[in-house]
């Protein structure tokens, strides 16, 4: 546990795992370079570009974001809105959603990208630039758990996640759909990375809305929709997928 604690402070500056594996990677790179040159392949010294960490037995992926983004894209496609508003989610997802509908992306760090059916709006999830109950299709994925921890330059606020939930609920239109996700399991704050909330606590934050679907990814990386919120209540760092509506 002490070693894990040290890694949390070192990894933001240098990835310890990559540093440890680098000597073996460079030895493999040098051996491959010699073999390639013996085969007659051009490999001038000025163009060498070592890649040491991609020789893996399978394709790596983040189980939270991979399944979450697929789930969200399918939900937006089924809902078929004329416009979708996303707040701070992964930019890859935001870009892909423009293949389905017009997307307005709201973030304190605007996305400077020229893209058809896309607009970026500078704004905070704590003060959304929309009138009450005016947005029919809305998403905020793996975002609210960071609010108030200063990680992205936002003001410090221990109630950041709760306030973000209230603001998202404020702008959701009657009959609208809100896709929300975040870490769930045993409640705690990992300053200044994120918070983990119990699934039922997140549902309670959206007391004015109705939960119409819950799913998620457990600690073992297993994705399931639907599933019961209590299934993930005892996890260490699971991902809860919540689909709300306003009656």
Structural description of this entry:
The protein is about 30% helix and about 25% strand. The protein has an 8-stranded mixed β-sheet. Strands 6-7 form a two-stranded antiparallel ribbon. Strand 8 and strand 9 form a beta hairpin. The protein contains 6 helices and 10 strands. It has 2 domains: about 45 residues; about 180 residues, Rossmann fold (3-Layer(aba) Sandwich). The chain is of the alpha/beta class and about 250 residues long.
**Shape-level CATH architecture of the largest domain:** 3-Layer(aba) Sandwich
CATH topology of the largest domain, anyone?
Rossmann fold
CATH superfamily of the largest domain: Vaccinia Virus protein VP39
Structural class: alpha/beta
Order of helices and strands: HHHEHEEEHEEEHEEE
Strand order of the largest sheet: 3-2-1-4-5-10-8-9
Q: What average pLDDT do the residues reach?
A: 96
State the domain count. 2
The proportion of residues forming helix, as a percent range, comes to: 25-40%
Estimate what percentage of residues fall within beta strands: 15-25%
Q: Return Rg in Å.
A: 21 Å
Number of helices: 6
Distance between the termini: 47 Å
């Amino acid at each position: 546990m002490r070693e894990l604690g040290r890694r949390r402070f070192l990894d933001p500056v240098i990835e310890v795992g990559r540093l440890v594996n680098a000597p073996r990677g460079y030895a493999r790179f040098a051996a491959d370079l010699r073999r390639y040159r013996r085969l007659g392949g051009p490999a001038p010294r000025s163009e060498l570009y070592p890649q040491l960490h991609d020789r893996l037995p399978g394709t790596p992926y983040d189980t939270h974001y991979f399944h979450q983004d697929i789930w969200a894209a399918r939900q937006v496609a089924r809902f078929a809105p004329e416009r979708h508003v996303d707040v701070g989610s992964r930019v890859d997802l935001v870009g892909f959603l423009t293949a389905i509908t017009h997307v307005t992306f709201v973030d304190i760090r605007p996305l400077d990208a020229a893209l058809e059916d896309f607009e970026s709006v500078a704004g905070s999830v704590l003060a959304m630039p929309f009138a009450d109950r005016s947005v029919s299709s809305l998403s905020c994925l793996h975002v609210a758990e960071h609010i108030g921890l200063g990680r992205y330059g936002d003001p410090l606020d221990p109630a950041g996640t709760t306030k973000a939930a209230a603001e998202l609920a404020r702008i959701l239109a009657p009959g609208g759909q809100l896709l929300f996700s975040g870490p769930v399991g045993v409640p705690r704050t990992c300053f200044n990375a994120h918070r983990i909330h119990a699934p039922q606590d997140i549902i309670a934050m959206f007391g004015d809305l109705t939960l119409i679907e819950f799913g998620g990814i457990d600690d073992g990386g297993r994705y399931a929709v639907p599933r019961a919120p209590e299934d993930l209540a005892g996890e260490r760092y699971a991902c809860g997928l919540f689909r709300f509506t306003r009656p």
